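Hi F.,

I've been meaning to write this up properly since the lab meeting, where we talked about keeping a consistent format for the predictions we share between groups. The idea is simple: the sequence comes first, exactly as it goes in, then the C-alpha cells exactly as they come out, then a line or two of notes. No screenshots and no reformatting. I'm using this chain as the first example so we have something concrete to point to.
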Amino acid sequence: MTNKRWITFDLDGTLMQNPFGAWVFPEIAEAVCRKLGRPHDIVSEMVAEHETRMKEGRCVEAYDWDDILRQRLRELELHLPLEIEPMVRKHAVPPKVRLLESGIVDSLTEMKARGFSLAVVTNGYYKFQAPVMEALGLLSLFDEVVTPERAGTGKPDPAILQGLGGQTIAHVGDRLDHDVQLANRSRAAAILIHRTLPAELKSLSPFSRVKDPKGIGLCMERGRKECKNAPWNELPSELLPTALVDSVHELLAILDAWQEN
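Output, unedited:
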C-alpha cells in the first residue's frame, strides 16, 4: 500500500535499552583478556574502528559489530569462536534489557488503532535488534523494521526510508545527528525525546519547547556532544527538532493536535 502514514522510531535510547554496553561488550572483553593472559581494552578498539568507518562514510559496515570483532581478533592473532548475535540472544532477557518507560506498548498500540503504520528505523543490524525487541514485546507492534544491512544505508541518509512507501509523518529518536537530521532531510516532523526535561520546559507544549531558550540550550548541548569539534555556534537547521518530548506518551497529544488542524 502506498497510502500508509508512517511514524518511525529509533530504538536504543528511544524505546529500549539493549544489552551491548552492560553485557555483550564485557563478555567479549573478558574472553579476550583471558585468552591473552593480560588486560586489553578491545572494546575501545572496536568503538574506534566503528567511528573510523562512520567518518569514512561506511555506515553499513560501521554497525557490523561481528566484522569489527573479527578484524580485531585477526590483528591480535587470537583464535576465539566469538559471535555477537548469540551473545545478544543470551542476554536479551529482562532486566538485562528493558523498555525505557512504562506504557510504551500501550502507546504504540493506540497509534496503530488510530490508523498509523509503525516502523523501526535503526542503525543496528536486524540480528542484533530483533531478539531484544521480541523479548520486550515490541517486535509484533511494528509493520517494518528498517536496518542498514537491509536498506543498504543508515541514518541520517533519507534513502533509508525509501522502502517504506507512503508518507513518513514523523520520526522519533534521541539523537540530533541521526534522528532529527534524518527527519528533516525526509521532510517529516523531527521529534526529539529527552526524558530529563526541566520543569520549566515540561510546562510548555512540545512545539514551544524547541523555541524556548532552555530548550534551545538543551539541544545545543546535545549537538556539541554528538558532533564533536563542530565549527558552528548555533545548531544548523537540519539539527533543529520540530518538537521536544519527555515521553512516548506525549506523542498521542501531538497526533491529536495534527488531526485537529
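Notes:
The chain has a mean pLDDT of 95.
Residues 20-91 form one domain.

If this format works for you, I'll send the rest the same way.

G.
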